[in-house]
Amino acid sequence: MPLSELAVALLRQVRQRTAFERRQAMDLWVETGFVFVTDIGEPIDPRNALRALEVARRKAVLKEANLHTLRHSAASVMLTNGVPIPVVSKILGHSGISITVDAYGHVSPEVSHEALNVLAEALSAEGVSTSASTPGVKEGRPDGFDSDENGL
């Protein structure tokens, strides 16, 4: 599994802490092969991890946060910041990109607006006219409204 540089740095810190705790525990140390262990090498109880998440949630003054929320937030942040869907799908361990698209395919209005700006810029770079006046078309909106969500 690919890891960010930050994750690698944090895991190195955990390894150093674990080596220190192993030396301190001496004969009491239980070798399990796990990365996250107690001060004598035993696996951490999953409930402790959930309690730590709850403490962090309260400190951040979040209404709700659980492991699913973190996973969904991570996927949404990656997609909103331009990480391709196949890459996000692979990171999440989905068997196909259709699962990712179904779960996270909603696009925020900001992303839609930016995507259309990218398209307009590409078209104008290709010499396609993006001016508001089109021969034979009257100015104004055909639906009778003065403006829409974009101020048009």
UniProtKB/TrEMBL annotation:
Keyword annotations from UniProtKB, A to Z: DNA recombination
A Pfam match: Phage_integrase
Annotated segments matching region Disordered: 129-152
Limits of the Tyr recombinase domain: 1-117
Protein's name in the database: Tyr recombinase domain-containing protein
Origin organism lineage: Bacteria, Bacillati, Actinomycetota, Actinomycetes, Propionibacteriales
